[in-house]
Write a structure and sequence with these properties.
Length: 134
Amino acid sequence: MEKKSGFLEKLKQGKCKDMSDVATANYLIRSIGGGGRVGDILFEAAGILKKLFPHKGDPKKQWTERRLKAWWNNETDVVRHWQMMELYAAAEAVKDENELLRAARREHADFIEKTSRIRALAELAETDGHRGGA
């Protein structure tokens, strides 16, 4: 994950000059859509982009799977500035959400471990009480 955030920082600073706009857009689409099959990546990325940037008043700016698929299959080489900025913002949002999920999972695992230890201690104390111990 450290690799991705470093790339996003370089991209934000404009230091990734060896990549084309379409390659950068495809990287961001993969970052937004996650892993798996290409169709699933494009579907997930389009859903997230539609949710974050609905553009209800302007149908030409609405995010569609077809637009993402055109970049993915190199059918077009036009990536507008606003598209790149929204892709970058969505990738950052997904990265932040994933970090929050990881922290919550870690916290939950710690809670489960702690309660398991307390339960084992309580069961030990209960069996000790049945033996007639003090």
